[in-house]
């Protein structure tokens, strides 16, 4: 008899398996990824400092974790699992992957992804994954609107807010790290 997975079990499963998946994705992408161009590094260094020294960029198709099929087989609603295959970009710790068929990435998109690189550095993979999973699951009210569910994840909200701040004044440098730490302190 098949046992279905309730939300608490799903959360525990994702907390346990997501960090390992992130680490595996980062390792496989770093083999093929490139460091930032000197122009890109120079452009973003006033915002990120040395954070980007270890960042890499790749562009390969992504798929969702293999263990999704196990969860679906146990009755988890597909809408409760983030579909990684359609994301224009995704960051795995220090590795940013851009969807190959997507338009040329904007500076804003790259800025957004590098905010995630810094979030990983500040939180660690385990805590980043926990917060991301919890943020996604908290958006269950947007079950049929994955776009709204995605942007309601607090880590994404931070990245979008900082991306907007950058877009509004791209030549006015600010410390992304200080902004993230200030937001964490007041949350």
Features:
single chain, 187 residues, alpha+beta, 4 strands
Characterize the structure shown:
It is built from seven helices and four strands; from the N terminus they run H-E-H-E-H-E-E-H-H-H-H. It is of the alpha+beta class. It has a four-stranded mixed β-sheet, with helices on both faces. The longest helix has 32 residues, at 107-138.
How many beta-strand segments? Answer: 4
In the sheet with the most strands, the strands line up as: 1-2-4-3
Mean pLDDT: 92
- In terms of DSSP E residues, the strand content is 5-15%
What does the main sheet amount to? 4 strands, mixed
Spatial shape: globular
Helicity, in percent? 55-70%
Poorly predicted runs: none
SS element count, helices: 7
Number of domains: 1
Q: Which H/E pattern describes the elements?
A: HEHEHEEHHHH
User: What structural class is derived from the secondary structure elements?
Assistant: alpha+beta
Using only C-alpha atoms, the radius of gyration works out to 17 Å
Spatial gap, N to C terminus: 44 Å
